[in-house]
Amino acid sequence: MSQYSVEVSASNFDQVVVGGSKKAPVIVDFWAPWCAPCRALTPVLEKLAAEYQGKFVLAKINSDENQELAARFGVRGIPNVKAFVNGELVDEFSGALPEPMVREFLARVVPSPAEELRRQAREVYRQTKNAEQALALLARAAELEPQDENIRIDSAEITIALGRLDEARRLLESLAPLTQMDDRVVALRARLDFAASAADAPDEQSLRQRIARDANDLEARLQLANLRVAGRDYATALEELLEIVRRDRSFRDDIARKTMLQVFTLLGNQGELVGEYRRRLASAMY
Fold it and tell me: Three-state SS across the chain?
């Protein structure tokens, strides 16, 4: 038995599996000595545990000797393999799968080197806002797994924040059609559109001066709204857009209402701000 495999019973299950899975995924193998498929599967699991070198721990449970544990986790046939992450059961399979299919199972549970780099990049950007360091980590991840679209989505989010809009657009346009429909991608495309509109707009002070001189300067109000969305001041943006709806619903083919809907999408179509302005928009329209 390798250092990455351990025999588990009721006495140490909580320590090894529940507690241990908060540090690294734990793959639990329910088996029995008389089970021929178990004898075929267990060496595959042990081989992969050694290969992964600690990225997961293999916990082997003799189901005959630990019937309470088997019953607790609904084991009806063996071999039965269950994956635990952060103390929770997250995935499982039954039967003696061939090694390629076991590898696919592990890929869903154990972060690949590329996924680890991606998570590091997200954490770096969240904690330090060091965009260039985060993008460098994402570039390394993309070299390892060029087909991973989540890496491109993360890169697009950061490049939008940096104002590198053409680069962000190329990243988003490279995604598969089904991925384009993902809520996060839809929101990023909306953010990209607002950032592009804001980049072409006059400065905020000039726009406010125009509105002060002429409250019906709806183009200035629209440009100011785009600027405020780009700056993530959504309440101010929605207020300006609502004012355009009140003053002239037909302005630029109802662009103010359509833009408000884009902002709602950007905000995930939920939350107090979205609810408030949906009600106020409906009141202004009817």
Answer: CCCCEEECCCCCHHHHHHHHHHCCCEEEEEECCCCHHHHHHHHHHHHHHHHHCCCCEEEEEECCCCHHHHHHCCCCCCCEEEEEECCEEEEEEECCCCHHHHHHHHHHHCCCHHHHHHHHHHHHHHHHCCHHHHHHHHHHHHHHCCCCHHHHHHHHHHHHHHCCHHHHHHHHHCCCHHHHCCHHHHHHHHHHHHHHHHHCCCCHHHHHHHHHHCCCCHHHHHHHHHHHHHCCCHHHHHHHHHHHHHHCCCCCCCHHHHHHHHHHHHCCCCCHHHHHHHHHHHHHHC
